[in-house]
Specification:
Number of strands: 18
Strand content: over 45%
Number of helices: 1
Number of domains: 2
Distance between the termini: 153 Å
Largest sheet: 5 strands, mixed
Helix content: under 10%
Order of helices and strands: HEEEEEEEEEEEEEEEEEE
Structural class: mainly beta
């Protein structure tokens, strides 16, 4: 009789429960045992993964390349051979290291001055040889449509006179307005270390050819030029070198040999002493 009463109570309880309500583990409306709660939906815009590359602020250009350094050492103007041709600017420069390459040249007019700039870039994240790389660039100047007159060309800290419409064909190239006593701000000018001076037999009324040998103190130093003065029967010569002030250089002695021509204008025939950076040699003018 007791079992019958219990069975009737269970039937009555089941009939009283609302439809759609399930009984699972004694918890009305719960999920079945072992069910997994679905993850909430992720927003469409998610943050990049930690390993994804991020753009470098302020750097534009070719991916994987950074702005490179160019040291302009000298420049000279070449006049046109025909009226329709352009003036050319020949530039000698050095790239900062073995990973830097010259990408191009930009030109823009600022008043009566033509600004020329060498563009360079270097590989990012690459081990480089820290030694200067010499480059030469021949730039055809953007002078088309510019009226005849006196202008100037500026590259780095060098400024050259540009007389448009006034240079006849076959004239000598224009030289920079800088003397050996002046230089771009990022170049260091020093006297060359001279070890040997050899004078070739001079010709009557001509120039004296002199071969100078010595050494540079590092891999960045290069021959820049010379200046001369005449004192009686002696020619005093200052031979100069240049190197970038902030460049990383290979600290090794580099031998050099240069040939220069000295003027003997105003000197009569007879013995002549030549002194170059403290090293002397003698010759005889015919």
């Amino acid at each position: 009789m007791a079992r019958l009463l219990v069975l009737l109570c269970l039937v009555w309880l089941a009939a009283c429960l609302p439809r759609g309500t399930s009984v699972t583990d004694g918890k009305p409306g719960g999920l079945p045992t072992g069910a997994v709660t679905p993850a909430p939906a992720q927003p469409a815009d998610t943050a990049p993964s930690p390993g994804a590359p991020s753009p470098i602020p302020g750097v534009t250009g070719t991916p994987g390349r950074l702005p490179g350094r160019v040291y302009v050492e000298s420049a000279r103007l070449i006049p046109p051979q025909r009226p329709q041709e352009a003036w050319h600017l020949q530039v000698e420069a050095s790239l900062a290291n073995g990973c830097t390459s010259l990408d191009g040249v930009t030109q823009r007019w600022e008043g009566e001055v033509l600004m020329v700039e060498l563009q360079a870039s270097s590989a990012a994240g690459v081990m480089c040889t820290e030694a200067l790389v010499a480059v030469s660039e021949d730039v055809a100047l953007a002078t088309a449509g510019v009226p005849a007159g006196e202008y100037a060309v500026r590259i780095a800290d060098l400024e050259l006179s540009l007389p448009l419409g006034a240079a006849p064909a076959g004239t000598d190239p224009e030289t920079p307005t800088l003397s050996l006593g002046e230089c771009p701000r990022d170049l260091l000018i020093q006297p060359a270390a001279v070890e040997l001076v050899a004078v070739e037999p001079p010709e009557r009324g001509g120039m004296v050819n002199v071969v100078v040998s010595g050494y540079y103190p590092d891999g960045c130093t290069r021959y820049r030029g010379f200046s001369q003065t005449i004192q009686g029967r002696r020619i005093l010569v200052t031979l100069s070198t240049s190197r970038p002030r902030d460049a990383m250089c290979t600290m090794a002695i580099v031998p050099y040999t240069v040939e220069i021509q000295l003027s003997t204008e105003g000197l009569a025939a007879g013995p002549l002493a030549i002194e170059i950076n403290g090293v002397e040699a003698e010759t005889t003018l015919p």
